[in-house]
Amino acid sequence: MGLDIKPPASFWVVAIFALLWNIIEIYFSSFEINFLQKNSTAEEFENIQSLPVWYIVVFIIALFSEMLGSFMLFMRQKIATKFFAMSLITLLFIESYWLFILDINKTSIVFSIIIPIVVIAIATFLYFYSKRATKEGWLK
């Protein structure tokens, strides 16, 4: 049986941040459509409403795989890395679609550019952090 390496305090800060980030992300995703409806032009909102079904499915996979990854990180399980990898791949796909295909730049720079970039940056950080945590032996 291997040694159980105790993670540093920074690990717990990241694990708690990951959980809180994902709870906030899911919470605000539930209000995003209402916000965009009130703050976008009719043409932009029509574009948003016409998102393909695959986009919505991939979006849900991204949200919940990152949430599961956060739970697994908090529980110190190696599978967290796989969930974060799945989340990063799906988020890169849907946020790229959001940034480059869907034209909502007039609505809000926060929704059209800043939030997608922040989401990708955090997903990338969580993936590589979980890989490091596995390498350091913090995850079992």
Proportion of beta-strand residues: under 5%
Q: How many structural domains can be distinguished in the coordinates?
A: 1
Can you count the beta strands? 0
Computed Rg: 17 Å
Provide the helix percentage. Answer: over 70%
Q: Residue ranges: pLDDT <50 for 5 or more in a row?
A: none
Apparent shape: elongated
Quick recap of the structure?
The chain has 140 residues and is an all-alpha fold.
Q: What are the defining features of this structure?
A:
single chain, 140 residues, mainly alpha
Topology:
Blueprint: H1 9-39, H2 42-49, H3 53-74, H4 79-101, H5 109-136
Helix pairs in contact: 1-3, 3-4, 4-5
Architecture overview:
By secondary structure, the protein is mainly alpha-helical. The chain has one domain (9-30, 52-136). The chain has five helices and no strands.
